[in-house]
């Protein structure tokens, strides 16, 4: 059981909020200062100015004396960058032990790790390291502070179920309630029973920690002041506002919107007569290359105003110095899963009040700031939901179930969930895993397929596709495809230039669809000697292509480790597509209405879907297709599509499909 501050025992002065039940530490908001920021002071001075510094002793005291400590503090107060350092300074990383700090987002992992390495004056990957999927920047013999995604930590449990090398695990950004964070908390609670010396810190930016503290059985109060809700109802020409100096942070929904906005604004800023001409417009989202990330965090050049256009990643997990103005669109892109139709899609959704406050709080960290909300005050007050829905309750649970199974947790419904997942979603996940041959009739992992799938750090459908490719003799090609599908997008954004984009794609396009097209792109990249120039000429993202090569290499090593054969099918695209179907047979659709961009229906649930404009099959209208994922705006769009023969579906999954004239139907 978690423990909190107990009144009556000795405690550091004026640092804790406690009530009869126990204590939780609240770090209050940083006072806005009118200085020009931290610019000239040393890193050490900056560290000492952070609000969390005042609570250093209190935090160390709590961690020393309690198995679990919950820390609530506003974004930017120093939780993520400072607490792991305090722990190291206090000796928690001695004797081969490691302090871990998890984040839900990969980009945040990289960014905070480099910041901490900089503050400690060490090279990243040595004393301070990080691990994200397919990228390990640690050195087991010297790394003492390790940042990692919560997903990676769960994977580490497969080799080391009690996470023995860690002395303290800080689960950061817990308020985000990501699927992996929720899973991790449940698992850590189990580990704690076996390892009472393990210290857990749960840190959160909002009072959402409420459910967390009930989970760990404690009570709490919130002393932080809420953000002010001065809401101008509309904001015309937001970015040409005549406001005093200061950077602007704009919240939009996803990479596509952001790239579009960046392009528009950059065109505008090139015109000297416009008021926007002093703006330096930069995107921020998780798929961003290192070079682009660095630009976002670099100091704003003199005489310029930085405009960072971001997803909700800048809501709490990252802090941008110098932001004085925030523009909040009121939306974010969220995963939503419908267990009835078995469709998981990314949907543009109104944010919650908690998020809106967080976004507003990003303004004016170093001087009084303003937040411009692109919605009405009435909407905010009357309609906006108070809190978001935890990802656990709106996700496809396939990956979650397989990981728990691999960790030996058989009774998944009886697992200690922070928020119970919907039973329909759980049942559907079991069904899908059964149909993929990953679970047997007793809901146990099959051998070897189930265990092998669990070993591969990818979506189980992709892992199944890879394993089938080993049988079909096309694993060389399929791991290339899997690598491409695991990076955000290999194309440079061509928003607003569909015609040019179509022409570029034609250079590589394969009639079979996107997956086969990627093989052509990959071949071209290798033939060019992995040239950045070549990428530039072909509108390909060089960083993304390098990542593909890297991920592919790791997958091939993994397959060799699993004792599986790497073989090429040369040009047999039928075999290739059959391997893809072995993982993705559930995502089949047939053309319902032929038109400019035809209407398709999913076989599974007769849902209406369309081919995404980024696909090489856009406007091609093949009769039968299988897609990799769906994105939804006003319609469902299939991303990464291949044309198939419907008979292959029955061949791949006779237990899943039956033939019904004139169409196929799921059993
Ligand atoms: O975790 P929390 O939001 O409480 O704060 P943090 O991420 O530890 O950030 C504390 C301070 O470190 C921020 O206010 C920034 O001044 C600085 N920081 C930075 O300059 N660059 C980063 N990549 C991360 C943090
Ligand atoms: Mg943080």
Please characterize this protein's 3D structure.
GO terms for molecular function: ATP binding; hydrolase activity; nucleic acid binding; RNA helicase activity. Residues 60-225 form the Helicase ATP-binding domain. InterPro entries: DEAD-box_helicase_OB_fold, DEAD/DEAH_box_helicase_dom, DNA/RNA_helicase_DEAH_CS, HA2_WH, Helicase-assoc_dom, Helicase_ATP-bd, Helicase_C-like, P-loop_NTPase. It is an enzyme of class 3 (hydrolase). It comes from Musa acuminata subsp. malaccensis. By secondary structure, the protein is α/β, with parallel strands linked by helices. The chain folds into three domains: 24-215, Rossmann fold (3-Layer(aba) Sandwich), CATH 3.40.50; 238-391, 3-Layer(aba) Sandwich (Rossmann fold); 399-648, Four Helix Bundle (Hemerythrin (Met), subunit A) (Up-down Bundle). 36% of the residues lie in helices and 19% in strands. The chain has 23 helices and 23 strands. Strands 1-2-3-9-8-4-7-5-6 form a nine-stranded mixed beta sheet, sandwiched between helices. Helix 5 crosses helix 6. The two termini are 46 Å apart. Magnesium ion binds at residues 79-80, 172.
